[in-house]
Amino acid sequence: MGGEDKIAMVGTPCQIIAATLMEKYSSQLKRNFPIDIKIGLFCMENFSYEYLKKLLHSYGIKFRDVVSCRIEGSNAYFHLINKDVVSIPLSTLRKSMRKSCKICMDFTSELADISVGSVGSPKGWSTVIIRSEKGLKLVEKAKKAKYIETKMLDADRLNLIEKLAKIKKNKNLEEIKNRERVARPVMYWRIMPEEIFLNEVENYQFKDLKGDVIDVGACVLCGACFFSCPEDIIKIEDRKPEINGKCPPGCNACYIACPRSYVPDCIVNHEDAYSALGNYIEIISARSPFFKGQDGGVVTALLACALSEKIVNKVLIVDKDPEKPWKPLPILTDKIDDVVKASGTKYSVCPIFKALKE
Ligand SMILES: Cc1cc2nc3c(=O)[nH]c(=O)nc-3n(C[C@H](O)[C@H](O)[C@H](O)COP(=O)(O)OP(=O)(O)OC[C@H]3O[C@@H](n4cnc5c(N)ncnc54)[C@H](O)[C@@H]3O)c2cc1C
Ligand code: SF4
Ligand code: SF4
Ligand code: SF4
């Protein structure tokens, strides 16, 4: 990553919260944070790669034979190389859901510049929530340059998105209350004004992150701690982040950057939790006339447009690991071909910010 980089990223709501924290507190982190545009995905839940692999195995499916996976209604549909489609009830799939997703209060990436999801739009289209002027400019540019075509979203479909967001928030708020009751703190959901936040976290280090987040099943495996660590002593592979070294006095970077440790209320606004979708300028449906994607190929088209129009010079995306089929692999690239190759949803978590450092 060079000092002059301007990067567009795509990520799940928890990853977008981490990006927002690292952007706002870059002076405390003593590190330039180069993400200029945040494209967030809708996300009801995510799954553990190893559990998902075992579950598919019990249905006689090998990950390497899966061409795509779509979640529609109450089932997940795995499309296989031999053209078979195997359906698994979402209730079964949810047994491999990550614990951290059960306390997640964001369905539509409320802190992104643009949020994109499938629910609310017809097949082959994506739902697009434009939230910032920067996001609006990119969507307008992509439309003008014919990377995407758009249409209005009708009221029934908007109601459906709001309903799903509220279902997630209400259910997960109950889980947060339950965990707090049995002394498993949910730090990021404790109201914390900014002044108190900066004071509170002043002396917190990796051991506190471990106790407050990692050991209580709240880590979303985003890699923000790895990226922020000035000593490069955090290891993050398939599971939990671990430390290999000693933290110097005065460093609290990993604790500040983590989206599941304390988060000040100027970033995660608790009142917004009850407005299903957060703040936005406009909601539309869109699709790309030429890029194939999970839904309308809109994320791929927006990122390709941002690169070719030189709005950014690199993009942070999630591809598939060539060694392990369907295992998400974060990459930082300036090539549109890589963006096209990375289209489609991989239903497992991935330490996306790792790729910013490597
Ligand atoms: C874990 C997960 C859960 C989701 N749950 C919902 C849901 O409940 N309801 C809903 O409406 N939509 C959900 N989505 C979003 C949906 O699957 C599509 O990603 C979205 O509609 C965009 O489609 P597209 O065709 O425009 O994107 P595409 O053009 O196909 O681009 C998709 C982009 O997503 C990125 N990506 C893929 N996998 C991951 C990952 N694991 N983590 C971070 N980034 C990734 C890739 O970098 C790629 O650039 C979910 C996405 C993910 C990753
Ligand atoms: S915590 Fe889970 S449900 Fe929430 S955004 Fe992250 S992956 Fe999605
Ligand atoms: S040095 Fe220690 S406290 Fe500082 S970021 Fe790294 S792990 Fe965290
Ligand atoms: S502990 Fe690290 S990987 Fe886990 S949520 Fe916090 S910043 Fe992300």
UniProtKB/TrEMBL annotation:
SUPFAM superfamilies: 4Fe-4S ferredoxins. Residues 210-239 form the 4Fe-4S ferredoxin-type domain. It is an enzyme of class 1 (oxidoreductase). PROSITE patterns: 4FE4S_FER_1 (PS00198), 4FE4S_FER_2 (PS51379). InterPro entries: 4Fe4S_Fe-S-bd, 4Fe4S_Fe_S_CS, Co_F420_Hydgase/DH_bsu_N, FRHB/FDHB/HCAR-like, FrhB_FdhB_C. GO terms for molecular function: coenzyme F420 hydrogenase activity; iron-sulfur cluster binding; metal ion binding; oxidoreductase activity, acting on CH or CH2 groups, with an iron-sulfur protein as acceptor. PANTHER family: 7-HYDROXYMETHYL CHLOROPHYLL A REDUCTASE, CHLOROPLASTIC. This is Coenzyme F420 hydrogenase.
